[in-house]
Write a structure and sequence with these properties.
Order of helices and strands: HEEEEEHHHHHHHHH
Strand content: 5-15%
Distance between the termini: 41 Å
Helix content: 40-55%
Strand order of the largest sheet: 1-2-3
Shape: elongated
Number of helices: 10
Length: 259
């Protein structure tokens, strides 16, 4: 459990679930008397949190072997490539910002390892980066209260920044690391110099990607006029997409949610 539960506020169902979870997760017992159509992966309401669990049906309807979704290694997730290839994927890949806020059993120490095991495969860093953005979103949605989540985001961003991978955009990795630092503190002089370099387009090889880089760097530097200048170069669809990124938190020139 990564979130503490207040036993004093348990209701009858919470006490029943405590017994079931102890029997299932610690004693290895099968749990009878449940609904017959529980999905293989389901969320259990438990006090003031939720738990992601695996319900493995047995030969007896309504009886299950229950496992912690994040701790059970028998569950594998795959994703499809552009040409129909099937790639191993992290079981954390589909988690949303809301999941990080509501789930009490996310194993944050395992997230990086879950991507590291297939780091050489296409889409790995893309998936990891998208998950990182969800973790940052979760911190923002907590109104900056979940410092523990921001710390986990920083660990992941630092790992992605150091990981050499032909499929990754090193500038995006730097910007993601920097946006976490901006949430924590002011920038050092060296960090400011690096952001100015990105804002001026150094290191970008793709013209379209350079526009995204420049918007991000200027937002972090609070150069709103420059950020707006490059933002206007995007199509309406691209603008709407950019507004979904957590770095948009630092925008002050555009108050639209969509065009």
């Amino acid at each position: 459990m990564t979130k503490n539960c207040d036993i004093a506020h348990f209701n009858d169902e919470d006490h029943k679930n405590s017994e079931r979870l102890y029997d299932a997760l610690f004693e290895g017992k099968r749990i009878p008397g449940l609904k017959k159509d529980i999905p293989y992966v389901a969320l259990l309401d438990y006090a003031d949190t939720k738990l992601a669990l695996i319900f493995k049906p047995t030969e007896d309807p309504g009886t299950y072997d229950i496992a912690d979704f994040f701790a059970d290694n028998s569950y594998e997730l795959f994703r499809m490539g552009e040409n129909g290839e099937r790639f191993t994927a992290s079981k954390y890949m589909n988690l949303t910002a809301d999941n990080f806020l509501e789930l009490g059993n996310v194993d944050y120490e395992d997230i990086i390892d879950s991507f590291r095991c297939y780091i050489d495969e296409p889409y790995c860093t893309e998936d990891a980066t998208q998950l990182l953005l969800q973790i940052i979103h979760a911190y923002d949605k907590s109104q900056d209260k979940r410092k523990d989540i921001l710390e986990k985001a920083e660990n992941m961003a630092n790992w992605l920044l150091k990981e050499e991978n032909p499929y990754s955009d090193s500038t995006v990795m730097k910007l993601n690391f920097m946006q976490i630092q901006k949430r924590k503190r002011g920038f050092t002089e060296d960090e400011k110099v690096e952001l100015v370099s990105i804002a001026e387009g150094y290191g970008s090889v793709d013209e379209k990607q350079a526009v995204y880089h420049k918007i991000g760097a200027n937002l972090l530097l609070d150069n709103q006029m420059s950020a707006e200048f490059y933002f206007k170069k995007l199509s309406d669809e691209e603008k709407n997409q950019f507004r979904q990124y957590p770095i948009w938190r630092f925008n002050k020139f555009d108050t639209n949610e969509s065009d």
